[in-house]
Write a structure and sequence with these properties.
Keywords: Chaperone
InterPro entries: Cpn60/GroEL, GroEL-like_apical_dom_sf, GROEL-like_equatorial_sf, TCP-1-like_intermed_sf
CATH class of the largest domain: Alpha Beta
CATH superfamily of the largest domain: GroEL
Organism: Suillus plorans
Strand content: 5-15%
CATH topology of the largest domain: GroEL
Helix content: 40-55%
Number of helices: 6
GO biological process, one term: protein refolding
Radius of gyration: 23 Å
Strand order of the largest sheet: 1-3-2
Mean pLDDT: 79
GO molecular function: ATP-dependent protein folding chaperone
Structural class: mainly alpha
Number of domains: 2
Distance between the termini: 38 Å
Low-confidence stretches: none
Length: about 160
């Protein structure tokens, strides 16, 4: 127990030190300096990060990945991007049957994001889709475990219409 208390005390001291010594960066020059340092001194990459920061803001998410060409490029995705493929354009589960019924009666399209879908609900969804009673599409939920729940929670906030079951 002493080790735990000592660790907690050390964590508090580190947090206090960081809070006391934090410098908020606001100018483009400061952002470029931090971005360049983070890019191992590559001023070109630092400049690209500044351009992206100007477009997405300080609360935006920046993802850097290896491209297929020798050129560096910026791609901005409005809203949220889920890097997963379709499960099928006809999926549904019993857990979200009320959403299916609501969407069908309101003549609203429905997007289902789920880990997996099958069984009778899948059959009902396919029939509704084929008979033109519902526009529905299903995609695999991104991530796993707590990360998946966190992303789905973000989607719920972003859309204000999503139920996380």
């Amino acid at each position: 127990m002493d080790l735990h208390c000592s660790a907690q005390a050390a964590i508090q001291k580190v947090v206090q030190f960081l809070e006391a010594n934090t410098k908020t960066i606001t100018t483009t020059t400061e952002i470029a300096q931090v971005a360049t340092i983070s890019a191992n001194g590559d001023e070109h990459i630092g400049g690209l990060i500044v351009q992206v920061m100007e477009r997405v803001g300080k609360e935006g998410v920046i993802t850097i990945k290896e491209g297929r060409t020798t050129e560096d490029e910026i791609e901005v995705t409005e809203g949220m991007h889920i890097d997963r493929g379709y499960i099928s354009p006809y999926f549904i589960t019993d857990d979200i049957l009320p959403s299916l019924e609501t969407a069908a009666s309101a003549l609203r399209p429905l997007v289902i994001i789920a880990e997996d879908l099958d069984g009778e609900a899948l059959t009902a969804c396919i029939l509704n889709k084929l008979h033109g009673q519902l526009q529905v599409v299903a995609v695999k939920a991104p991530g796993f475990g707590d990360n998946c729940k966190s992303i789905l929670g973000d989607l719920a906030i972003l859309t204000t219409h999503l139920s996380v079951i």
